[in-house]
């Protein structure tokens, strides 16, 4: 992950300078969420961050560097604050059951995982909408800016690794493939609910997640 975290703009030399640089990036991210990437301009960011215009041009002479570094900060924060905590919660749940489970234990575990995952998705849609909007803007910008493509790939792979690890712990014979399928299902649900937040209830999400997990479990048992 660390190798892909490459900031483009001028580096801060002192702690106070780093705080101002970060404030500029956080202001740019707020503009992106509220008004879109194309609204990011030096003057608009300076106003949003409440810093002199000269500060934004000092750290980011090129507006594309400012945009790239804004999404780099977003990805760094998301991996630390959103993805890794979910991983820890899921792994703790899975590791808390015996390696050799009865059918009843497996069904109970899958139901709990479905409930936990559904709650995670619902929380993102209703309480972390800005995060999802920023994520969509980031992934779209990565299509246009090759400097962000490696970071976008790492960001997605970080999520796939979490899911693959969970699938492996559940006994999957193809944890990578199962992780890709599960990721696609979750991503599709989030996309639908980002456009229409009330499209699914938590029970609807839980049913779709549970169905996917049960299909994966049947494949594992059959093999």
From TrEMBL:
The keyword DNA-binding applies. Keywords: DNA-binding. Pfam families: TetR_C_31. The keyword Transcription regulation does not apply. InterPro entries: Homeodomain-like_sf, HTH_TetR, Tet_transcr_reg_TetR-rel_C_sf, TetR_C_31. Residues 18-78 form the HTH tetR-type domain. It comes from the Bacteria. One of its GO terms (molecular function) is DNA binding. Residues 41-60 bind DNA. This is TetR family transcriptional regulator. It comes from Isoalcanivorax pacificus W11-5.
